[in-house]
Amino acid sequence: MKKYLAEFLGTFTLVLFGCGAAVLAGDRIGSLGIALAFGFAFTAMAYGIGPLSGCHLNPAVSLGMYTAGRMTGKDLGSYIIAQLLGAIAGAAVLLLIATGHLGGYDLAARGLGQNGWGDNYGGEYNIAAAIVFEFIASLLFVIVFLGATQAGVPTELAGVAIGIALTGFYLVGLPLTGASLNPARSLGPALFAGGRAISQLWLFLVVPSIAGIVSGWLYRSGILAKEHVRPRVTEVPEQQPMT
């Protein structure tokens, strides 16, 4: 249970402090600050829980690990459940904090860091732009994760590399979709924001997940793997962002 609890806590932290940066301080720190908050939160958790669970914090990453043959189906299901619950808990705590503002908090107007696209959202990009960005960014993010943690590669700085990659993708994606790359990160805020966030949630559940599967296949097939060897499926990831 330790690795599942680790994934719960890690995803909780990512949503609370990443989305929290947007909700509580976005008007002061801007897109750069929000992107750094997500990247720093991931990097910190990579070294805090990486030795326990591998610090996926993202169903798309777990799907990539499973497709690459680096985790079991049992772990995959349990990881995803833990990540989704962690994201929901993180969003719930964020809402509790936001509504404690003495001047009040209008959830309908200000949101909870949820993802979206179209009129009156971010830079007002259409659904095609949202799909293209989320697929490519998620694909590349999971590729970075799998590459930095594959067997035979020094992993001491993997958490830093993955955190930097996440920050970069967020800098580009915040005006487009609010940058998801992560079904759990999208689910938590959307459940509380409701309305439009719920109606658009499907994109952020489906597209990053497909991208994660494709990334895993690229490694399993040997196209991107350091060495083309038959994967050995274990109950925990073979490599972790922090060893």
UniProtKB/TrEMBL annotation:
SUPFAM superfamilies: Aquaporin-like. InterPro entries: Aquaporin-like, Aquaporin_transptr, MIP, MIP_CS. The keyword Protease does not apply. It comes from the Bacteria. One of its GO terms (cellular component) is plasma membrane. It holds the Pfam family MIP. This is Aquaporin.
